[in-house]
TrEMBL record, chain A:
Pfam families: AAA (PF00004), AAA_lid_10 (PF17872), BAH (PF01426), WHD_Cdc6 (PF09079)
Composition bias type Acidic residues, residue spans: 434-449
Physiological role: Component of the origin recognition complex (ORC) that binds origins of replication. DNA-binding is ATP-dependent, however specific DNA sequences that define origins of replication have not been identified so far. ORC is required to assemble the pre-replication complex necessary to initiate DNA replication.
Compositional bias ranges of the Basic residues kind: 205-222, 453-475
Predominant location: nucleus
Protein known as: Origin recognition complex subunit 1
TrEMBL record, chain B:
Family as reported in the entry's similarity comment: Belongs to the ORC4 family.
GO biological process terms held by the UniProt record: cilium assembly; DNA replication initiation
Transmembrane helix in keyword set: no
Taxonomy, superkingdom: Eukaryota
Quaternary structure (record): Component of ORC, a complex composed of at least 6 subunits: ORC1, ORC2, ORC3, ORC4, ORC5 and ORC6. ORC is regulated in a cell-cycle dependent manner. It is sequentially assembled at the exit from anaphase of mitosis and disassembled as cells enter S phase. Interacts with DBF4. Interacts with POLQ.
A Pfam family hit: ORC4_C
CDD domains listed in its UniProt record: AAA
Protein name according to UniProt: Origin recognition complex subunit 4
Alphabetical UniProt keywords: ATP-binding, DNA replication, DNA-binding, Nucleotide-binding, Nucleus
Its job: Component of the origin recognition complex (ORC) that binds origins of replication.
Amino acid sequence: RMKYFTRLRVKRIYEWRGAPIGFNRKLKTSEYGSLSIRVEGLPQTTVISAGQHILIEGDDDNNPYVARVLRLFADESGVQKKAVVQWFVRVSEVPPSKLQLLGRVPHPQEVFLYEGRSCEDEVNAESVLRPVQVRHLDVAAPFPVSEDGDTFYVKLSWDSRTFRPVDPSLVMRGATATPASSRKPGAEAESLHSLTKLSASKCLSAKRRSATQRTPGVRKKLQLSSPDEPAALRDDVLQQLLEAELEAGARSAMAASLSRRTNRKPGRRDDVPLTPRSARRRESQSEMDSPPAGDDPSSYKNKFRILAEKREIFPEINVSQLWTGDVSSLSEPVQNQLVPLSPQLVAPGRNHATCRETRTSSRRKEIQTGTEPVLEVLDEEEEENGALRVSRRKSALKVSSRIRKQLNLLDGRLSSDEDEEEEEFVPSRKELQSSDEEEDDDEGDEDEELAAKKSRRSSSSHTKQKTRTPRKTPRKAGPITPRRHRHATPSIPNRAQPARRPGNILEEARARLHVSAVPESLPCREQEFQDIYSFVESKVLDGTGGCMYVSGVPGTGKTATVQEVMRCLQHAAEQDEIPPFVFIQINGMKMTDPHQAYAQILQKLTGQKATADHAAALLEKRFSNPASRKETTVLLVDELDLLWTRKQNVMYNLFDWPTRRHARLVVLAIANTMDLPERILINRVASRLGLTRMSFQPYSFKQLQQIVTSRLNKLKAFEDDALQLVSRKVAALSGDARRCLDICRRATEICERSAAGLVGMSHVMQALDEMFSSPYVAAIRSASTQEQLFLRAVIAEFRRLGLEEATFQQVLVQHQALCRVEGLQPVGVSEGLAVCRRLGACRLLLLEPSRLGVLQRLWLNVSQDDVLFALKAD
Amino acid sequence: MSKRKAKDAHLPIGECISQVHQILRKRFCHQQLPVKPEGVEAQHKHLAELLKRTAVHGESNSVLIVGPRGAGKTMLLRSVLRELSQETEVQKNLLQVHLNGLLQTDDRIALKEITRQLQLENVVGDKVFGSFAENLTFLLDALKKGDRSSSRPVLFVLDEFDLFAQHKNQTLLYNLFDVSQSAQAPVAVVGLTCRLDVLELLEKRVKSRFSHRQMYLLSKLTFPQYLERIRDQLSLPDDFPDGKFAQEWNAAVTTLCEDKSAEEVLQRHFNSSTDFRSLHMLLMLCLSRVSVARPSITPTDLLDASRFCLADANANMLHGLSILELCLIIAMKHLNDVYEGEPFNLQMVHNEFKKFLQRKSNSMYNFEQPIIMKAFEHLQQLELIRPADGASAKTQREFQLMRLMLDHSQIMEALQKYPQCPTDVKQWATSAFA
């Protein structure tokens, strides 16, 4: 079986070029002018010198960091190669909320000069990937048509709060002087990957190209499908698309016959899988070059050669624009194989959920079609068959150059509708099966989809600019793909009529007393607030990590306090008093399985979706990787005890990450029990959790009173005595602030019904009574005569036996005797059992399973005194 | 005038009877809601206000309705919802999700059902896609996105609420109550349960999030009220097509309720249980006897129906036994008397039976051991006897310890009614030494 060639296997060799140009005596570092990077097995080397722009390996393989080298040096031992860099921030690294400050849509290739302070500027030189182009543009200047995926544009600088125009000298100095030769190896190494990305799109682009030439409508269509196009033209577009597809279909038939011929060509290696696809691709290309192309295969070869020479002129294309890497939407195995192969996939701001939905299934197919040629290439490479590889690659590059041309032609708008033609190429089943299991359940769908492709195609190409409704119609006709929901937006429909505002004082009070109402401040937790605040603040300032364990009974304000702390800290970060940090929270109760914690953390940190295991691996990498620029992450873990597993892996990891040197992770864990670490955690977990503990005491009555008062905020709705009664009662029972607020709220309702202006003692008493009174006595009183008699018989039998347990048969004898005493007809066994079961259903009695019939044992669930009291008063 | 005409119109008697059946069956079998709530006015008002506040003000609430079976919990909720649905402001806004603990036996199913009923975006047709974890995250995200003033409020009705508390970690309850206590989409969680100790089932963090509003349906009817209700249930409405028939029917119902023997029967039922369902069962049996030949319910019908309702199932089963099996049962009864309920085995029963046979010179009951064994096994199949708790299955069948599942009164009652029961057997039943 062929192996997937992954990015990780590319081993780079880093070497200093020339002798050190300087030596720092104090730091004992020797400075070098340039660094050469060689990819193992490839002849060319890349030279990195100070002033050049480079890509640096980061958390996200698709979006390596962009930076400019300021200095290159080796540390005292001479082993570690280091570089001092000036960072640039990609669009994707800026928080989306801050991107709004930009006031425009950021260009996907735009970067910002980073002027913040929270990132180290010293990096390990071995994390350097390759050089890139960074060009400065005036703020007002338009972005050039995207000509190269490796060129970034700088207009502004970003200091984690504002964007400012940037001085060109900071960006450009020395950057343009990259020798052409040094670019090559990068391109060479990259082309392996680019092939993957290309193969899908190149097929279609070739087809599209020819279509463009013949039908001007298609070109128009491509422009139309950019999102900002008015919707009025849709119908025309649809029409044109259909035409184009029909033509494409006709040609594909021709291509099939052609491919057969090509296969027979002598001298061709047999093991080269010449799929109809690749043949067709060529065919359409040649058709484009010289429309009445001869069928002689040799003419193709010539063309390849010619085009291969053009390769220098057309540097490799970055498919990232074509192929919006919505990697997260793919199933994990696919993603695994995809990420290393296509390191440059950038999602240029097309995360509109509705767009993604349509594309998911089609994209999968692209991946499948995409992997195939790559695998071929890799196979060949393993066999060290140079000549063929070159030709392969040449063809790929040729196509890429064509695509680029096309892109230029179409103002780079291709990106918005590359998937319209994906059905043209049926991936061979064999390759498909190699991909992953999740694909399997899809295959059936795909067949049908292909069958129904005419209808689908017409719809899928123009849905982008529309809302969901039009897409749905053709979808519904075909099989339903289970993938849709991944991009569904979770939301509750909006209400038809606006919610009414509180009308009077009592309603206002009720709204403020609702537990969900967020108070301006949290009274009575000042000390705890201060402690947590200073803990987190110090960790953020130091750039270190740590754990804190917060315990307390429910309703004592643990989560509220922590959230309040984080709100304050975030405010402080906005004011630039402390470095910016990321705050995420998870809740043990809000996941189905402790391991889901990983997936949730990852999703909240990066927006990536992954299975729990994969997420664990990614997080592990993230927190142990000494990636230089990282903000502190503050993680709130609510209901910690729910994350308990037998091996305690989840908890172990959560508390182990903060101890890593580069993790910069602060974990705040919340649970109910104070001695949780001692009781359920094994030593190595408890040890990592550390001794920074905090315990929230239940509120005292004064504190509860203060909480209600501060919430009411001078709104006069309660009598003071009434408030005090509630507070004292709740403080005595549980000290749960939620209870206190709920009782007050109920009291306002009772007050409203009794038409009193102010909530008084009687209302509060009634509310307390409703909430805390035991229903058992009332239940016994409301029971039917026979039920009451039965309870009496139970007590009589208990007394006779001297036990708190009896069988139904024994009680029945007593019951029948009591019936006679009361002058009622004695109950039969069935009737008696029915009575007994009714009492058991409302848990006045506890019963054995009813299949035991008359032999079932029973116990009282209330005290005998309560029963007697209830029956006596009757 | 036309209406009056319709009222006075005479229908053939058969037509009238079928109409009566139709109307009353709808009441008894389909749990038709009464026009106005009876006996639960306060609770009705409380619940209506509560749900209305959720619908109109977007205030989140949670409440438990607790009452014994047949107390009218669902009826109360349904009549409140019916009342609210007449207000456009509520009707247009309120989304409803109905769950039942007997159907949604775990959180995974419950979540799918919620998502389906809410018609969230990951629902296609009637199917919900995604794993359990995804569904939970999706629902929570959906609820979190909402806020008090702009999202439609959602009413969650959890029937058999106590069963939801048995789900793992009580995840669903925690999350529902947590939403109701935080600034998310407004929800009202209404739980219906017959367990009075329901709060003790909740985990403490779940309990803390529950608002502790509990409505108890524990009012007791008096017998006159009970009679009044029966009259209401049986009476025909004013808009019955044949006015004359309706009058006659209603008059007959009134006489029935005043009849002494009928009252006695009803009193017995009232003593046993006051809930709607057993009453409906009784009245349904009466109704099914109504025909063209007997166009009204008579006290005898009621008496028969009552006898049918109160009949003892196990005692009835004894009527179908053979004499041998009956003799074995009697032997067991004597063993129970002698050993005070200790378990017995086949050999002991057989010995006891043999003693009876020895006293009688008559050899008509002389059976072989295998036949007795067969009869014993039949009794076990009928579950009139069952193996004692600690008895291991390994022991030989003759010596396996058994317990009798019948009460003495049931045996005696069955013997009285057993067709052509031999006198000596009857005597033996009353006394072990007869």
